[in-house]
Each structure stands twice: as C-alpha cells, then as structure tokens.
Design a protein that fits this description.
Shape: globular
Oligomer: single chain
Helix content: 25-40%
Largest sheet: 7 strands, mixed
Radius of gyration: 24 Å
Strand content: 15-25%
Amino acid sequence: MTNIFTFDARIKQINAQITPFAENFDSFWHKEIKPLFTDESLSFRVKTLNGNYVEYVNLDNGATTTPFATLKQYVDQMLDTYGSVHRGSGQKSVITTREYDASRNIIRDFVGSSSQNYVIFAKNTTEAINGAATLWAKKPGKILVSDIEHSSNLLPWVTRDEVIQYRTRPDGSVSLSEIENIFKAHQNRPKTEQIKLLTITGASTITGYRPPIYEIAALAHRYGAKMFADVCQLIQHERVDMRPDDDPCHLDFVAFSGHKMYAPYGTGVLLGPKEFFDSSYPYQIGGGNLPYITRNLEIKRFYTERAHDPGTPNAMGAIAIAKAIEIIEGLGRSRIAEYEHSLVEFTFTRLASIPGVKIHIPGDNLAHVIPFDIDGFDGRLVAEILAQEYGIGVRAGAFCTYEYIRKLKNISDEQDLEIAKEVETGITRNIPSIIRASFAVYNTLEDCDRLINAIAQIAKNGLDYYLPYYTQDEITGVWTVVDR
C-alpha cells in the first residue's frame, strides 16, 4: 500500500521548476522556523498498520496548531508566579494581573486596533461571537450574514437576532453589487428593518477563500451599518488590520482564537468599540466585573473592559496569545504568508495532476487550505487511510459550513431534504463531506511530498482495494479498520 507513486513527465518538469524554491525555503525552515518548535512536536511518531513508526504529518492545522516552544517555556515560567487576576495585592497576583492586562495592548497593536476599542477575552472564538450576538440583539435592526459562514459565525446570530442571509455565487465568492442591493432594499425602512451589522468570515475554513473584507466594510459603513469579521482562519496566516476609526474600510469588530495561532488553551478574543460595550449590559455577569451591589440590589458596573470580563479569567490563555504574537511578528507575517502559500501552490499543482483527484478550488488566489476528493471514495475513508497507513493527519467532513458544502458538492434541494430527514432519525452518514488539507508554518516540502504520494497511491489502488480492510458505520458514516 505504500509504494511510491512514479510521476509522469509533467510532474518531473514541475519538480525541476520547483528546485530553487525548495532550496530557499528549506533553508528558511531549518534556520528560522524549526527553532521555534520543540523537536518532540516536529518529530512526533505514530504507528501505521504495517507496524512501522513514521513521523506524523500534521495537515489539520485549520483545526488547531502546535504551540511555539518558547511560548511553552514562557507559560511554564509564568505558572510559577501565577496568581489571581485583579483579586489581590500579593506579588503573584500583581505579576499575573500585569501580564494579563499587558496582553491586551499587544493584541490591540497586532490587529491595528484603535485605542478606542476594547479587547475582551472569551474561552474561544465561538463564545466571543455569542457574546457579541447577545449584545447586538438588544439593538434595533437586522444582521446581514453570508451563507459561507462556519456555524460559529452563523448560529449565534440566527438564534438571537433577525437575520438576512446573503447568498454567495455558486463557487462561494462574494458579489459586492449584490450586497449593496440588499442594503439599498432596506435603507428606507423603519429602524427595526434596516441592516445594523454585516458579519462575514475573513477566510473560509473549507476553501481558504478570503472575501474582500475591507471593501465590504466600506460598503456597510456607507449604509450606516457596522462590520464584524470572524478572522480566526486568517489572522495566523496574513496580516489583519482593523484600521483607524475614520478609515471607511475599518473593521468595527474582529474575533479570533489563540489556539489557531500557535498558542494553547483555546482562548478567544473579541475586539470592538468602547462606546458599543459601555452602552451594553455585559453578556455575562458575576464576580469581578462589577464593583458594588447596594443593599437594594442595585448593581454598579465598570465602564471598562473589566465589565465584560467576569470571574477568574484564563490568564494563561491571554498571556499565551500575546507571546505567540511576539514570535509571529519576529518571524514576519509577510514571510509566513509567502512560505505557506508556496507550499500550498506546490501541493496544489501536483495533486491536480493525479488522475481521479478533484480539487474544489481553482488554482488562482490559493490560501492555506486545499479541499479535495478522490473519485469513488468517501472523503472520510480517505482521511482514515491517510491516518492509518501513512501517518498523515487531514480532516474530512462538512466543517460546520453546510451551505458551502452543498454548493461545492452540488447538493439539490431534494437531496438536502432527504439528508435532513435522516439526521432527524439520528443518521448522519450521508451528510456531504470533503477532505481538507490545511497548512501551517511548520509544514515542509517533505510533508507535501508524503501527502501527494499517498493520495496518488490511494487513487491508483481504487476503492475496491480498501473495502476488505475498512468498514463504515451505517449510522455515523465513520470508517474504522477491520480486525485482521
């Protein structure tokens, strides 16, 4: 099963062209990227079905990333001085509070935020967006949301507010003129019928497609609406700049998570205008985010970030994000983007040359992910084969972006209704899925080669070759190895 695929003349030509790239980027990786991670994380070994141990290839970075080594060391040191934030006058409390508060300024600078924005921490991006949606639901108007959103930037708005869903093109791309038509249709209606906020992803979790968020922001502002960008799939790959408040293209709100940018603990961040948060009752209330309660139970609140920071916070998560930012800035975001894009382009070109492989994105404007399928295969089976036989981690599924998946897989309304009926009975086997390889800065050309060779061999073998060795659950659709 592990024979190396012999590339045709076209692939050999591509390899010849890629040699200068390989030399330059191999040097960049060894001298500057490799020292940022522990040897244990980079050489993590897994056992394959043939009994051999191989180095694990992590191409599921859209889900989470391996922490920086110096960040781990820094957090370990901070844990020795860990104390409760904003709770005491002892030295440990003072040290932790200072680091926690300082992390906000580092984050604010990282995204080019105005000083008039609050930096609010949450347990993850999902909670950050839920918090924003709860506050926005108290203001009149409607939310304009795209149909390519991850559930984390869809369900919080749908369940709390009046939502208008903007339908993208068949390929999932945005039409600015169509968005403007929606704004025009609502601009002269009563306040409750006007669009108050537009929310959209900074980069698709499936395809990496990057909507023109700054142009969209300018359009929203032109019609008196605010702009919310979920940038958790973008900020670790490319620069995100909220821009000055008087810039028509500025982003009013952004949300993202540390664990997708090489910081552990999953902490999420929400940035937005002080004026908005000060005029809103906090999403959560409890100890720490209010200074006094009168005898008559009248609540006195802070008009600072602390009003939206209840209880004992995940201080280490916030501090880890700040440290990750310093490391990312030291490496250089433009260099990270160039390196990752080159790996993706290299992999895309070679995957596209393999018979039977269908890539669900065009070759232009590639980002950090490659969504694909192999003819005749369920994507979840391919992911299982890659894990069990090649030690390669990818992901297969719908990625919480069901409408986008329906677009990519051409799912009809009739098929959608049938799938929905099955799900109501507990059957999730037939929910459409694709395979996603998502890249990070620690990936290498060797990782790319191993994926390409494995996919080529799987496609060459064909589905019937694997059916005796794997079985699919009739309810969930999950594939597992058959006992041999």
